[in-house]
Fold this sequence. Notes:
Shape: globular
CATH superfamily of the largest domain: Type I PLP-dependent aspartate aminotransferase-like (Major domain)
Distance between the termini: 58 Å
CATH architecture of the largest domain: 3-Layer(aba) Sandwich
Structural class: alpha/beta
Number of domains: 3
Bound molecules: pyridoxal-5'-phosphate
Order of helices and strands: HHHHHEHEHEHEHEHEEEEHEEHEEH
Largest sheet: 7 strands, mixed
Strand order of the largest sheet: 1-7-6-5-4-2-3
Number of helices: 13
Strand content: 5-15%
Radius of gyration: 26 Å
Amino acid sequence: MSEHTQRAALHSAPPGGISRQLGHLASEYGNRFLLEPAPDHRLPLHGMHPGDALRLIEQELVLDGIPDRNLATFVTTEMEPEGTRVITENLHRNYIDHAEYPQTAEIEQRCIRMLANLFHAPGDTTGTRTQGSSEAIMLGALSLKWKWRQRREAKGADHSSPNLVFGGDVHVVWEKFCRYFDVEPRIIPLQPDRYTIGPEDVAPHVDENTIGVAAVLGTTFTGHADDIVGINDMLVELKDRKGYDVPMHVDAASGGFVWPFLYPHTKWDFRLAQVRSINVSGHKFGLVYPGIGWLVFRETADLPEELVFYENYLGKRDATFTLNFSTGSSMVLAQYYNLVRLGHEGYSYVMETMQSNARLLAAEITAIGEFHIIGSGDAEQLPLVAFRLDGEHPYDEFDIASQLASERGWMLPAYTMPPNADHVKVMRALVKLSLGYTLVTTLAQDISEACAVLAKKGSLHPHDRKRVKTGTGY
Ligand SMILES: Cc1ncc(COP(=O)(O)O)c(C=O)c1O
């Protein structure tokens, strides 16, 4: 076919359709999807070449943000090539097949033992790998519910109205647990200028039907910790005085891999008598890609036997305590990789580096002269900077977030605090290893520039939003 005839054939495609000629050429030179909409509503009748399918997906994903510029997420966006290799080499192993993959099961147990030790468990204990902190919290809170029921049954007391006490600073998963598992949530509202809770907030809500108190180590909103020592002391005193043995679960989704290295002398874990279980996300400061989380009990007896299922159809009698069954082994192995690769010293180095850069970012943002840093000073905090505008401006935090995203591609969320602090708008930047010194200073300049642009062009949004987030990147 001459070049002229070919061009004519290309241009003779029916409107909205593909000429046969073009379809034929595409199989040689291009990709089918360049000329067709992506399969959408139903399973396509015919498939495509693997390379075409790959490029179809890759082409669309350019519309997603670049993970390294995602300052919203607590979750790992960068791993070493060797850690990534552990993941890719083990994608074909189903973690739950313990009989078939006994060494993976053993490695999971090693991770649990290391974490229990890091969290100062008094002796041998138990725990489980989960998909993330949300699953770990569901399982931990279910254990609290079962244990409470056992205590009530032993006394011959009513056990129809369980409640769980926590602050408005918790992650949404705590309310989800209460709704899914029929427990009354007793949520302590925050105060306009205080974004964590302490014993005086908790005490009025606790009674004989309280299955437990949830306290947070490293809140999603500002990265601070509840007064866990104070709450523990109050619960110990309550036990002595009224005989209510109310356990505490510490949600250390982020803090569990930060506090042991940055604040090793602060007690928040099993050093405190009422702390019976702890969750931590391996995929946050455990530095593994999603999804991996951990639940660790203080003692084996804190896991009610009724919640453990035994089966032997995989070839060996096996105990499971999970909400799901099949899942990949890769992230368990990657967690073990990080634990042995970094050790105590390596994790300390990583956390201190992130903290140092978070402090640098806080100083640079303060120097802009328009912002108030939330919890500056000595407060123990995750490596992040939470800040808000000071004084009157013709724009707000949501405008700054939009301006930064459109001009520089930074994903730096703006959000409102939970009740009763929901009039407070906040911005928050996680400072990970991918945000080194130079990028920190560049980011601060970009924030300053965004403010200057907005001062000229004014607000981009109506300012009356309530609890509308640009995504806190849980
Ligand atoms: C304090 C806290 N708890 C629980 C969660 C849920 O964790 P995951 O995403 O691992 O399920 C998060 C997530 O950011 C969190 O910050």
